[in-house]
């Protein structure tokens, strides 16, 4: 793997996982030393992260990790609702019923095991990614899939805010299973409705946890 790709993947992961929090200034020299590469790969990684919208130019040297606010979280979910309801509708028409039926069963099983304190939550997140990929394949729309991938980069970061909410995690597993089941049945309206319910609940959970960075915290939901 090229040094610039390695630097990009490392920094991207640190931002999404909140090891580098919003507002953190990233300096080329410091990051080059931390990652054990020269400044050129770091500069290239910064450029890609800027294109992703994960960092923005600093007044001085380097870049700043972009903020997460109520305003931009709401904007993300407005777009997410439009994209995911369309993708679910296409998947319900074009998708493999057996594949989505199997996903529904696995998600329902995951919801049961998530109640355990020692549950492997990483397996659940991988299962959700598998479902996203199956919907993308079933929708058979390259432009829609590309827009989804770009948005998921930002959603991966804000989703971490509600990660400690165990009740929400179990509810989300049931909601994902309902989406998969509706797609398996080829029911477009039910699939879209299940998506809207899931996204509404997910948005509320995230907004409840968004740091008050710009005086935008919700006063009442």
Provide a short characterization of the protein structure.
It is built from nine helices and three strands; from the N terminus they run αβααββαααααα. By secondary structure, it is mainly alpha-helical.
Q: What does this entry look like structurally?
A:
- The protein has 221 residues and is mainly alpha-helical.
- The chain is 71% helix and 4% strand.
- The protein has nine helices and three strands; from the N terminus they run H-E-H-H-E-E-H-H-H-H-H-H.
- It has helices spanning 3-16, 28-35, 39-52, 70-94, 97-113, 121-139, 142-159, 166-184, 188-209; strands at 25-26, 55-57, 63-65.
- It has a three-stranded antiparallel β-sheet.
- A hairpin with a 5-residue loop joins strand 2 and strand 3.
- Helix 2 crosses helix 3 (39-52), helix 4 runs parallel beside helix 8 and helix 5 (97-113) runs antiparallel to helix 8 (166-184).
- The model is unreliable at 213-221 (pLDDT under 50).
């Amino acid at each position: 793997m090229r040094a610039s790709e390695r630097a990009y993947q490392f920094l991207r992961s640190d931002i999404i996982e909140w090891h580098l929090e919003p507002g953190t200034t990233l300096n080329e020299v410091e990051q080059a030393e931390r990652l054990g590469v020269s400044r050129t790969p770091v500069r290239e990684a910064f450029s890609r992260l800027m294109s992703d919208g994960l960092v923005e130019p600093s007044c001085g040297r380097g870049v700043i990790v972009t903020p997460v606010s109520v305003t931009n979280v709401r904007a993300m979910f407005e777009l997410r609702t439009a994209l995911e309801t369309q993708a679910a509708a296409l998947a319900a028409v074009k998708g493999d019923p057996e594949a989505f039926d199997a996903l529904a069963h696995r998600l329902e099983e995951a919801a049961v095991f998530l109640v355990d304190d020692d549950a492997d939550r990483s397996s659940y997140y991988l299962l959700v990614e598998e479902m996203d990929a199956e919907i993308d394949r079933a929708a058979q729309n390259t432009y829609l899939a590309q827009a989804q991938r770009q948005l998921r980069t930002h959603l991966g970061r804000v989703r971490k805010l509600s990660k400690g909410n165990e009740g929400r995690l179990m509810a989300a597993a049931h909601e994902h299973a309902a989406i998969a089941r509706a797609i398996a049945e080829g029911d477009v309206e039910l699939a879209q409705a299940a998506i809207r319910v899931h996204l509404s609940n997910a948005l509320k959970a995230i907004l409840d946890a968004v740091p008050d960075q710009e005086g935008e915290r919700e006063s009442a939901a």
